[in-house]
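Pilot study result, target chain (391 residues):
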Amino acid sequence: MKKLRNFFKNIFLIKMLYHCIKDFIYSLFYKTFLCNFFYDFNLNEVIENNKKYTLVPCHNGTGGTITYLNNKYSGKINILVLRNHISGGKDFLYSIENFETHKKIFIKPENIYKISSYIKDIKIVSLESYMSLKFLFNFFKSLNVQITYDLHDFHCIWIYAHLVQNNIYLDEEHVRKAEFIYGFRKITFEKWHALWSDFLNCVQDIFAFSESSKNIFSTSFPEYKEKVKVTPHSLDYINCGKIKNINKKLTIGIFGLIRASDKGCYVLKDFLNFSKDKDFNIFLFGELAEDCKVYSENIFYKGLYNVSELDKIISGNGISAVLFPSIWPETFSYLVSELIFTGVPVACFNIGAQAEKVSEYKMGEIIKDFSNESIFAALESAHKKGIEYYG
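Predicted structure:
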């Protein structure tokens, strides 16, 4: 037991050393003249002196948040999207993109106040990737403009934006006990909550996209419950058709970018192992983390797909029930909305906006727990509802 403790202690020290070395290297590059050779810092490329802009902070990733960003702001004028570009233990570099011209420049945190006089309001899409939140919050507040905050994820509740750690969803009790250590920094839930509570006090409106999200937010910040407005995303972009009938044989479909534990990749890995060589087929469209793939004659990996072809993909492959494996409380879930639009039976876990939608869907089924048997039983039940509906 002593050797085991020493092993984990050494691993912890190695991680701390790694972060310290990374911060040192980043500082050496991004805080000196070296980065000037690689990045364009000319603000005039994205800002005109006689204009005022809406500042839209967003993360650097992919998924539904970026779909929302593009749907809402593409084609709009005077939009500046602020993103974190390089982060270590703190932010080293931001990017600013003019969404109308698609021109992008970079700016160091110490220079970000140079854009202050050009900002008329702030519409926060996501802040989940930023480390220097206190610095950014002070900057936002200093502008003395209207601020709105979109509840795409739950970064305001805990540093793990999807409330998933070590492949487990963190409920309220576990979040309140949570700690995050980065290098020599230790962040507790109390410190995190106080930081966000102070900032949210300056936010005029908070937009949630489901009742589930509003309830989760309000549990952590009951004092700001009245600021929350539930405004579902527009689904006007969906241009696929609807399926006309359903395969009488159970054939399981799985869609989406399932790259990490929050999206259910390890739950899915277990289910794929459970399904090996069974008398039903599984088709996966999208991406699955490589270490979670299971190979069998009845499991097919089909790659990325186009939403406009979703109904044809479902019908063409005989998919008769879809598993949505996400284990975090999705704040809206474009994918579940798209699947329901096509008319295919859907099963998901009892959490978040996905359960809110699926529980009200005539061919939806809620999975009672994370066991393979429960997953399969829910898919069978959803399939049966589909057969009854389509006849």
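One observation from the pilot: The first strand starts at residue 53 and ends at 58. A full batch analysis is planned for the follow-on phase.
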